[in-house]
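Aim 2, interim progress: modelling of the magnesium ion-bound target.
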Amino acid sequence: MASDNGVDSDCMTITRFLIDQQRSCPGATGSLTLLLNQLMTAVKAIASAVKRAGIANLYGIAGSQNTTGDEQKKLDVLANDLFINMLSTCGQACMLISEENEDPVIVPEENRGKYIVTFDPLDGSSNIDCLVSIGSIWGIYEKKTPGPPTKEDVLRPGTEMVSAGYALYGSGTMVVMSTGCGLHGFTLDPNIGDFVLTHRDMFIKNRGKIYSTNEGYEKYWDQKVTNYVHSIKYPEDEKKSPYGARYIGSMVADVHRTFLYGGIFLYPANTKSPNGKLRLLYESNPMAFMMEQAGGRATDGEKRVMEIEPKGIHERCPVFMGSTYDVDDCMKFLTA
Ligand code: AHM
Ligand code: MG
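Predicted structure of the complex, ligand included:
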């Protein structure tokens, strides 16, 4: 409840929320709460670095390339270091899979816990230097086998994830996440330096009015994708308005808007990128997990994204996600 000076003396911080959830979950040990708490420290430090980047000389290129050959930006490197340092020292994780590291990062034995975290520490890199929203994405799995962690421990379908989330560094900083009991959003309150619950039980509408894709690649798309996009731009029923187009080019920002306003986000395969661009383990799967928690759908054009059996840790997949009816309509074209 807010007092006269505008301070809420009973605010639901993210840690308090997680502790409450943990209490209602039989057998929970608090290990995931500890892990997520450390992850929030990384997110807060990244949010602060993103804000100061222009004056702290953090824009620009760091001079190295990541696993997929993209030039690494200085903020990418800092964000990756923060994720790795915070997660590998919290005693709850045994292996980390980052977009920025070709091989899994194995946590030293003395610090190992049961969780495997996959993450893109700073997604939407091409937007960093022009101050457009960027984000971090993560997915969390529990290690199931005894012995030291190996790649195989994470080559499992997304249906086995225990938690997923993203941070959006936009006009404010938000964390949206799920531990499998709905999707909830938290906004960073700079006055207290903590995330407070602002969006409980996020649900995506069944149908939206917005499509979000890089339409510049239409030339390389499969005709079926072109036909679907054409169908929402030129509805058969002349009384219906066409869908609006919104594309930021930062998956976190585009999917966040899709959660709030509904519609469809698609990054299809194309002749230049036969599996699309987005990475299954730390982009598509965590977003698919959250999309389903919010009552939406996420498919690769044939099946649920979360049912894909990954073969490699940096594997890509096409993605069509959002409001149920919109994704269903799209599927009718794709499977026609
Ligand atoms: P990144 O991980 O190198 O930043 O690339 C992922 C980003 C997504 O955030 C976004 O949806 C997509 O790339 C945009 O790609 P494109 O510029 O091809 O439309
Ligand atoms: Mg990315």
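Residues 99, 120, 123, 283 surround magnesium ion (ligand 2) (CB under 6 Å). The longest strand covers residues 115-123.
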